[in-house]
Design brief:
The complex is a heterodimer.
Chain A: E1 3-5, E2 9-13, E3 18-25, E4 32-37, E5 44-49, E6 53-57, E7 60-65, E8 70-75, E9 84-91, E10 97-99, E11 103-108
Chain B: E1 4-7, E2 10-13, E3 19-25, E4 31-37, E5 44-49, E6 56-57, E7 64-66, E8 76-78, E9 87-94, E10 106-107, E11 111-115
Parallel strand pairs in B: 2-11
Antiparallel strand pairs in B: 1-3, 3-8, 4-5, 4-9, 5-6, 7-8, 9-10, 9-11
The chains are: A mainly beta, B mainly beta.
C-alpha cells in the first residue's frame, strides 16, 4: 500500500532551527509537496520538490532524496507564528496526492 | 471573492438528511478536489474534477457525489448523512491536474460538518 510517515508532534524554541522529516512509499512518484496548516485554517502551499536536492525559499528549505524515499522541511529562525501543522504529500503515478497525517510543530519562547 | 469560497462554514446535520457543501473558485483553475480531514489522518480525496464536465472518484467516495457544470463551481452532496461523515471538508483547486509548480493546490477555508 501507499504510505507517508512523519512525526506526530515536535517542539522547538523560538529563534532555533527545526527539521521535519517525511518518508514515503508510493506507487510511482511525481513530486513531493509541503503544506503549512494553522489550527482551524486551510493548508497553504510551502514547497514542491521533484528532483533530488535542496530547495531554499527564505527561512524554509525542503530537501528530497528519491532513492531513499525521504524528504525534510527545514525551518530556520523560528518564530511563534510558525506554530502549525506541516503536511507532507506525495503525488503518485496516477497524479493523486497521498497525504501524511501532519506534524504539529509547537514553538516555545 | 478571492480564491476559493466554501459554504457553510459549519453545520450540524441530522443523520439521514441530505446536504450539499458548496465550493466556488474565481481563479479559473481547471482542476478541483474535495478532501476530508479527520484527526490523526491525512487529507483523503473524496472526488475530483480535471475540467468542467468531468468528475472522478478518489480514495473515499462512498456516500458522496459531485458535479462540475462549469469551471467555477464544484458542489459536494451527501445523499443521506451518517455519523462517520462527521469531518472537516476542504475544497481545493489547481491550475492543472498535477498541481505542480508554484502555488500547488489552493484550499478553501473548510466546512466543519457534524452528523448526529
Amino acid at each position: 500500500g501507499q504510505n507517508i510517515d512523519q512525526p506526530t508532534e515536535m517542539t522547538a524554541t523560538e529563534g532555533a532551527i527545526v527539521q521535519i522529516n517525511c518518508t514515503y512509499q508510493t506507487s510511482g512518484f511525481n513530486g513531493l509537496f509541503w503544506y503549512q496548516q494553522h489550527a482551524g485554517e486551510a493548508p497553504t502551499f510551502l514547497s514542491y520538490n521533484v528532483l533530488d536536492g535542496l530547495e531554499e525559499k527564505g527561512r524554509f528549505s525542503s530537501f528530497l532524496s528519491r532513492s531513499k524515499g525521504y524528504s525534510y522541511l527545514l525551518l530556520k529562525e523560528l518564530q511563534m507564528k510558525d506554530s502549525a501543522s506541516y503536511l507532507c504529500a506525495v503525488m503518485d503515478s496516477n497524479y493523486q496526492l497521498i497525504w501524511g497525517a501532519g506534524t504539529k510543530l509547537i514553538i516555545k519562547p | 471573492i478571492a480564491g476559493i469560497t466554501q459554504a457553510p462554514t459549519s453545520q450540524i446535520l441530522a443523520a439521514g438528511r441530505r446536504m450539499t457543501l458548496r465550493c466556488t473558485q474565481d481563479m479559473r483553475h481547471n482542476a478541483m478536489y474535495w478532501y476530508r480531514q479527520d484527526l490523526g489522518l491525512g487529507l483523503r480525496l473524496i472526488h475530483y474534477s480535471n475540467t468542467a464536465g468531468t468528475t472522478g472518484k478518489g480514495e473515499v467516495p462512498d456516500g458522496y457525489s459531485v458535479s462540475r457544470a462549469n469551471t467555477d463551481d464544484f458542489p459536494l452532496t451527501l445523499a443521506s448523512a451518517v455519523p462517520s461523515q462527521t469531518s472537516v471538508y476542504f475544497c481545493a483547486s489547481s491550475d492543472e491536474f498535477s498541481g505542480t509548480g508554484e502555488g500547488g493546490y489552493t484550499f478553501g477555508s473548510g466546512t466543519r460538518l457534524t452528523v448526529v
